[in-house]
């Protein structure tokens, strides 16, 4: 019989790419991970990996096993959820990951409702970029996480993660109140405040402007939307901001329509949707948005 813990190491290797990365996630040594994977091969009775220089590659059997592993992990989550449902109500620790604007606007009301309705829950919130949420869920560092994408940059589906819609919002171009233009197309000749390279927000700005036929003239790179809006008010450039970030708009800033929308979803490990604690958090987040 295959050892589930070793199967998870194999799955993580496919996801992370190197034995060293798998070892870091699990607080093992690379040698220990290699030994566990060798033991899994003996259990399977077939080679799962082959060496290619300093790297390892999956054999055909290894790729078949990794694909099947997702079904095994989902079944384990479903079983855990079924056992938890036998208890009287949602209980235990739930680790929630959310991006900063959601932490400020959506989570407070949800946390208050959860504390009132489900006092046996122990809630822990971490600020996290949505791009990092799928990995944090797979690594079991999170139980629930907020994901988002834009119509110009659709989400990449992670087979280990399930999700349900939370909200869809407009995206605006924040400009100085006295800026001498009124449309998105007018921003082609002005300075831009972009998010840091490698972030989803940075890629969205590049895609939206490219679709409009120009490249943004980047002057500043800032990730925090409050700081971005302060710079816009100071005449330092224009920037894309989602609707959630405009709840408290500083003086000296006005908003123009941008040709994209942002969609936020609530993610959790595949098979965990019926877990009482996960379902309670999902319900409270959706109610907070309503």
TrEMBL record:
SUPFAM superfamilies: Periplasmic binding protein-like II, Winged helix' DNA-binding domain. Keywords: DNA-binding, Transcription, Transcription regulation. InterPro entries: LysR_HTH_N (IPR000847), LysR_subst-bd (IPR005119), WH-like_DNA-bd_sf (IPR036388), WH_DNA-bd_sf (IPR036390). The keyword DNA-binding applies. GO terms for molecular function: DNA binding; DNA-binding transcription factor activity. Residues 2-59 form the HTH lysR-type domain. GO terms for cellular component: protein-DNA complex. It comes from the Bacteria. Pfam families: HTH_1, LysR_substrate. Transmembrane segments: none annotated. PROSITE patterns: HTH_LYSR. The keyword Mitochondrion does not apply. Belongs to the LysR transcriptional regulatory family. This is LysR family transcriptional regulator. It comes from Virgisporangium aliadipatigenens.
